[in-house]
Amino acid sequence: MSLLSFDTLFRAADQRLAPVPVVAAGGADRTVLEALSQSAHRGWVKPLLTGSQAEVAVLAHELNIDLAPFEVIDTDDPAGAAVAAVKSGRAKLLMKGQIATPALMKAVLSRETGLRTDRVIGQVVLMEIPRDQRRFLLTDTGITIQPTLAQKIDLLKSLAEVARALWDGPVDGDNVPHIAVMSATEKPTEAMPDTLEAAELQTHALEYGLGPCAVQGPLSFDLAYAADAGEKKRIAGSVVGAADAMLFPNLNAANLTVKALMYAADSRFGGLLVGTSAPVVFMSRADTTSTRLHSLAFTLRWLQARQ
Prior knowledge:
The chain is built from 11 helices and 11 strands. With 307 residues, it is α/β, with parallel strands linked by helices. It has 2 domains: 1-116 and 276-307, Rossmann fold (3-Layer(aba) Sandwich); 118-273, 3-Layer(aba) Sandwich (Isopropylmalate Dehydrogenase), CATH 3.40.718. The protein has an 11-stranded mixed sheet with strand order 3-2-1-4-11-10-5-6-9-7-8, sandwiched between helices. Helix 1 packs across helix 11 (289-306), helix 2 packs across helix 11 and helix 4 (78-87) packs parallel to helix 5 (101-108). The two termini are 23 Å apart.
């Protein structure tokens, strides 16, 4: 078994009985309007936008997008207004629109009015490489800069939860998500403390309450991705060459890896935040309309699993 493809996630979203209210923080953006217009037409969502109503109207006119399905919240605090819409129940999902990550996260992380929980907040990206018929998750690619061991345990738990939500078939026995704890080498060494933590995460995985999954680390990217790399290096294990999810040692390693795959590989991808009280569709402002649709279909599946 493996993770569901984006094609399957799209078909599942097409079959929803009712659209899900989603609010985009910073709606005056071509990719935001196009993605929400298309997903509303398909019956996925009921779209809300926050930001300048005048700017949204001008851009929609230029793009020939009908704003009839949209509700626009006119505000000079798009992040705060979007989070408030989720907190009040007007929206079930939050989407990062044309807004800087620090501005959005300030509103999300507010202890009084935000979406904080007792879980670690991190970005999970679903990556699909059609050439190799491979799909896998990566975290944390966008939020936690240098996670502690305790934070890695929590991110590992979230990664397992998301992987099971995307699992194509029953999760039982050996048929479970395989998670690689990533590093630059497969050999634990004191010169690279993250390799020691990776080995500890593998050793004590059963104690963390992760649910059904297999954890192995440290593993380099080639070992996690390609079975022949394990054969050449004589490294064995159930996760070698079969990783469904990858936990990276820090934001630098994760972000560089995911951006390299996004731009250098023939790939499809989408992102969301875990650890928040409501799901957050989360991607870069540089991403395309199709990536926003991928992220939305991915997040709708995650919402369904949470419910």
